[in-house]
Amino acid sequence: MRFEHLNVVVSIDGLQPEHDERRKPATYERIQKSIAGSRVTIHCTITGNIASRPGYLEEFLRYWTVQPEIRRVWFSLFTPQRGAEGPGAADSGPATRGNGGAAAVTRHVTNEIDMHLAIYKVRPDVQAVVHAHPVFATAFACSGLALDRPLCAEVVMTLGSIPLAPYATTGTCAVAKALAPFLPGHDAVLLANHGVVTYGHSLNDALMKMETVEHFAQICIAVRQLGGGALIAGEDMTALLRARTAYQRKAAPHL
């Protein structure tokens, strides 16, 4: 039986040696046999070890994007759990006891995974999600203030407005529900009393959007200190929105 609008996502834990060790018996070989003749999306969580190894992501993409069954590849960023030490502590290797003996390690997916998956579900164009807590943008989120005033042409062009999603308890499905109304029309959202989430057609695109949000938050603070700022409005705003539409069309990846 085939379901026309069903998107199957297969979770892959890095390149074959690491994946096969962690996910036995769901090895690369077994997964590829299972998906033969299907069309699926591959999902990989980027941890500190992966991000710090030169060429790792490129090798991962080279392997999977040439497989005929693969529709797209999604990446999420791992959020280290409280008590972790160092980048990507959850996958940095076996833990040791004081006597040097190996201790059991349980590798946890971030408890905010529901937020990431909700974005992928609503936005099929999205290939990467970035969630962070940058100082200035988070200060706006904690003050109940959206970054939605048209002050800077570059921000209107690249992001439009940046709304504020209502507060929801971290790590629960309530965060995804709070985000839901904003996902179709925005590429960046402030999370009240929490942080920021951005998403895009590539990991670099999502990261650059996060940088833009934080930079714009700093600009807004400076504008407030100088007396309030002059908004882009009227015909200027109409022309800018037309330019934004053309920019989005040009920037969209050709899948």
Secondary-structure blueprint of this entry?
Elements: E1 8-11, H1 16-23, H2 28-35, E2 40-46, H3 48-52, H4 56-65, E3 70-77, E4 95-96, E5 102-103, H5 113-122, E6 128-132, H6 135-142, H7 153-158, E7 164-165, H8 173-179, E8 188-191, E9 195-200, H9 203-226, H10 234-251
Parallel strand pairs: 1-2, 2-3, 3-6, 7-8
Antiparallel strand pairs: 4-5, 6-9, 8-9
Helix pairs in contact: 5-8, 6-9
Report on this structure.
- There is one protein chain.
- This protein has helices at 16-23, 28-35, 48-52, 56-65, 113-122, 135-142, 153-158, 173-179, 203-226, 234-251; strands at 8-11, 40-46, 70-77, 95-96, 102-103, 128-132, 164-165, 188-191, 195-200.
- It has 255 residues and is an alpha/beta fold.
- The protein has a seven-stranded mixed beta sheet, with helices on both faces. A two-stranded antiparallel ribbon has the order 4-5.
- Helix 5 (113-122) packs parallel to helix 8 (173-179) and helix 6 packs across helix 9.
* Lateral strand order in the biggest sheet: 1-2-3-6-9-8-7
Count every beta strand, where a strand is a DSSP E run of 2 or more residues: 9
Specify the CATH architecture of the largest domain. Answer: 3-Layer(aba) Sandwich
Largest sheet: 7 strands, mixed
Shape: elongated
Whole-number tally of structural domains: 2
Radius of gyration: 21 Å
CATH secondary-structure class of the largest domain: Alpha Beta
**Broad structural category:** alpha/beta
On the 0 to 100 scale, the average pLDDT is: 83
Could you state the order of secondary-structure elements as H and E?
EHHEHHEEEHEHHEHEEHH
Measured between the Cα atoms of the first and last residue, the distance is 26 Å
The CATH fourth-level homologous superfamily of the largest domain: Class II aldolase/adducin N-terminal domain
According to CATH, what is the topology of the largest domain? L-fuculose-1-phosphate Aldolase
